[in-house]
């Protein structure tokens, strides 16, 4: 058995470590979008495959017997490519996705980043804490009325909001630190994606404590018929049930 883990998340690193400890042949793949990624245990490749056709060819050439997509819940392009490639290559595919955050009644839930930008545009306040990632800044680039506090792991490029303060940091974050940050910048609205997990959940508690509004982008759906689990333990169990 040879497992390809499409990674880049904490769950992917935990899964690689667990499978390697069990003696499984594991190869982790990272997209290469983060300059200094946290690497998992075991062999790692970095970079794209050239779309679903390229990934399917890679699976066959490398003798991959199972694929586990443990990418970010919003990496919908990679997930779609993995589903198509696995079907082409005749290789079982599992998606490992951490549980989403519980949504509170007072939050505004929107379908995508463009809907989030529209919600911010109509908001009457001033200061927005934008934590959706550097690749989504273009959606807010036309908004010159609001001040944006933006937090990213790597420096952004491309169109950006004209009134933007940038912080580069990587979680985990604490409620106390997030509360202090929002107070210091007079934040009235938090815009985030429903990524789930504990690494960045503190901002949501801080927002509730401070009475800060929340615009939450809901997760994109998985490809139809995709098998999915929520924990590393469930993913390990799935591997153990595979033939070979």
How would you describe what is shown here?
There is one protein chain. With about 240 residues, the protein is α/β, with parallel strands linked by helices. It has two domains: about 1-100 and about 220-240, 3-Layer(aba) Sandwich (Rossmann fold); about 110-215, Vaccinia Virus protein VP39 (Rossmann fold), CATH 3.40.50. About 30% of the residues lie in helices and about 20% in strands. The protein has seven helices and twelve strands. It has helices at about 10-20, 50-60, 75-90, 115-120, 175-185, 200-210, 230-240; strands at about 1-5, 25-30, 45, 65-70, 95, 110, 125-130, 145-150, 165-170, 190-195, 215, 225-230. The strands form two sheets. It has a six-stranded parallel beta sheet, sandwiched between helices. The protein has a six-stranded parallel beta sheet with strand order 6-11-10-7-8-9, with helices on both faces. Helix 2 packs across helix 3 and helix 5 (about 175-185) packs across helix 6 (about 200-210). It is elongated, with a radius of gyration of 19 Å. The termini are close together. The relative contact order is 0.17.
For the record, the CATH class of the largest domain is: Alpha Beta
Helix content percent band: 25-40%
Please, what is the CATH homologous superfamily of the largest domain?
Answer: NAD(P)-binding Rossmann-like Domain
Low-confidence region ranges:
none
Number of helices: 7
Corresponding CATH architecture of the largest domain = 3-Layer(aba) Sandwich
Give, in spatial order, the strands making up the sheet with the most strands.
3-2-1-4-5-12
Number of strands: 12
Give me the Rg, rounded: 19 Å
Globally, the shape reads elongated
Mean pLDDT level: 96
Taking the sheet with the most strands, its summary is:
6 strands, parallel
Q: Determine the strand fraction and express it as a percent band.
A: 15-25%
Cα separation of the termini: 6 Å
CATH topology title of the largest domain: Rossmann fold
Into how many domains do the coordinates divide?
2
Give the SSE order as H and E letters.
EHEEHEHEEHEEEHEHEEH
Q: Quickly give the structural class.
A: alpha/beta
